[in-house]
Amino acid sequence: MFHKAGFGRIVGIAGLSFLALVLISSGIACKKAGEAGASTAEGGTAAVEPQAGSGIKEGLNEVTGKVKTALGNYFYLPQVPGFDFSVTGQIQGGDATTLIDKEVVVKALFNRQEPNLLVAQSIDLKDGAVPTNVYTTTDPASPGDHFTQIKRAGYAEIKVTNLNKSEDWEGKGKGKAFGKLIPGPNNQGNYISILDPANDKETAKVIVDSLTTYASYYIKKLRLFDTYYFYLTIKDSVAKNLRAKAKEIFHADVVAIGLY
Q1: Which domains does the chain have, with CATH numbers?
Q2: How far apart are CA 237 and CA 260, in angstroms?
Q3: Which of 85, 176, 178, 203 could join 155 in a cystine, given CB atoms 3.0 to 4.6 angstroms apart?
């Protein structure tokens, strides 16, 4: 037979346990929501299925909207969050930047192997009673520098523990680093200032030899952010006797940029 005080303690413990379970579950849900939010802000989705509610299906799709961001072969319509559009040939009048702030009707292909990309087959400008065609193709291929969400898994994060500890990056071939893009002296070239995500303190610099058009497009698209993850092809290391002065550790080509 339970005493009232003992029963009260049991009820109290059970209540606290239930509350802890609710808080843990809420925390997990918030973390997932945050990750999903970052993916949407970045214009990508990690799943191979189209984003729920987007109306995008396998094969040919027709989308209408105003172009918000564009560079080279890529452009973005806020009306279709989670996707970028690409062209494989020349748009009448130039590249995709000629479409910025214009209303367009795009017919584009969706392929699950490239889950965040729609490959334009035709683009019409809605600049009058009758739309004007500025691009037509039958080529389903994506641009060669397109970086799929699926590729991210092959880029482990580079953690620089010491400027002279070359094994932190040498031999890896590729990796990702958190930081910000900064201009070189006299605006010659670019560097990546690698930051510690815990305190935003600089741990090292990477000399950027090149950025793909896709990476440059994402810098424009993520203009509200100044720090990203840089997906890198790792190249030659800087000589050890030169690293301490400028904290530069290796050369790299930037193949993509993202929020995670």
Answers
A1: 155-258 (2.40.50)
A2: 25
A3: 176
